[in-house]
Amino acid sequence: MITLTGEHLTFLEVEKVLYQFEKVTASSGAMEKVKASRAAVENIVNDGKIIYGITTGFGKFSDVFIKKGDVEALQLNLIHSHACGVGEPFPEVVSRAMLLLRANALLKGFSGVRPVIIERLLDLLNTKIHPVIPQQGSLGASGDLAPLSHLALVLLGEGEVFYKGKRMPAMEALAFEGISPVTLTAKEGLALINGTQAMTAMGVVSYLEAEKLAYQSELIASVTLEGLQGIMDAFDEDIHLARGYQEQVDVARRIREYLVDSRLVTKQGEIRVQDAYSLRCVPQVHGATWQTLRYVKEKLEIEMNAATDNPLIFDEGRKVISGGNFHGQPIAFAMDFLAIAIAELANISERRIERLVNPQLNDLPGFLSPEPGLQSGAMIMQYAAASLVSENKTLAHPASVDSIPSSANQEDHVSMGTIGSRHAHQVITNTRRVIAIEAICAAQAVEYRGVDKMATATRNFFNQLREVSPSITVDRIFSKDIEAVNGWLKGLGAER
């Protein structure tokens, strides 16, 4: 059981909730803070104070006073009008992450919701009722308004959900689990949608996939080094210590460990003096990606435990401040940086693929074909990798450099962080397919060299890979192999 406090949610806990379906509860201490914050909201309404989003309209309508009798209608109208997301829905795991992160943020006790709102979010999480949330329509400031409105609809018994493998009206799933919908009262609609949980949820899922992918890319690069009889001197610890980047040192160490007992790799001068950069510079390039991953993880861990709605309530209501914590700029930058860093893993992987298949760059059969000329072998797999790499280059263009004013220029600068997070995830998906292609080609190359000469670690990987993608003995529909290896890599456990 994971207990949320609003303060200390970790990546390890998130991973357990998202992928192992660990149950979640709220700490009693955090709930006491929620109750105190709620009492402050009720006092504001009863006293007729003018406070943004509680007794006023939203955005450009912030100067319109809302009477006490209309505060519930105000919140319902907010959710209905803002639920205008479009496009394909987020993956279920991302929707699940949004529920978790929104509940955690509300538990900080700055948002003024009733405890029942948090309880319902956790009910959805624990019964695996996942809101259908369109991916497009958020500007990433004023929060992820459109996506989170679709999440909020489900609390009302409206909208759609994924439940038990089916897409259905929310009320059907709620009824099946005996969960009663809620009626939103003052501040609650705004508290649910005024936050960065869509971009952060997409970012968290992307980070977890990217971290695993980064480890896998090193192991697959090690198999490529064996297939091309790579020179191990370039991975000597002294070289990497001399530069001083710990991540670079760590990548070199892991590759040395993978290849410690290999009889396929070489020393400088044995066959050639230097390898091409795509082999020799794996620690430098992959290490730089790890530096970026560290940065991204740090920002996401802060945002996972952040109060990002508006206004925020402090000192039991004595201080209620309209600010801008909903602005997604920190996550927008992190997501753009993540896309760039993972795209580089694909870039260098594709160059290793080229060295594996190009007969002018190695002494292997052309395109690793069983019958060069009659059979094309891996020729077009390299094309596919090149296409994915090219697509990544367009996806890695920063979303955060753009801003379009909204709400009649009241909200005149936005982050586009949710676009950045979606692009980062697509880059990760593309890159996994690129390294799947490298794995297929590298495995074929080591077969020509002699599997019995492989290192213990890489041979173990090779044997598992061969269960998914058999040796190339004749041309076949390689798309099936690529997708099979891609799915296998995605499902493997992450190294820590």
Automatic annotation (TrEMBL):
Modified residue annotations for 2,3-didehydroalanine (Ser): 142
Classification via Pfam families: Lyase_aromatic (PF00221)
Cross-link (5-imidazolinone (Ala-Gly)): 141-143
UniProt keyword list: Cytoplasm, Histidine metabolism, Lyase
Pathway(s) it belongs to: Amino-acid degradation; L-histidine degradation into L-glutamate; N-formimidoyl-L-glutamate from L-histidine: step 1/3
Coiled coil among keywords: no
Keyword Transcription carried by entry: no
Enzymatic reactions: L-histidine = trans-urocanate + NH4(+)
PTM field: Contains an active site 4-methylidene-imidazol-5-one (MIO), which is formed autocatalytically by cyclization and dehydration of residues Ala-Ser-Gly.
Listed EC numbers: 4.3.1.3
Location in or out of the cell: Cytoplasm
Family named by the database record: Belongs to the PAL/histidase family.
This protein's name: Histidine ammonia-lyase
Primary gene name: hutH
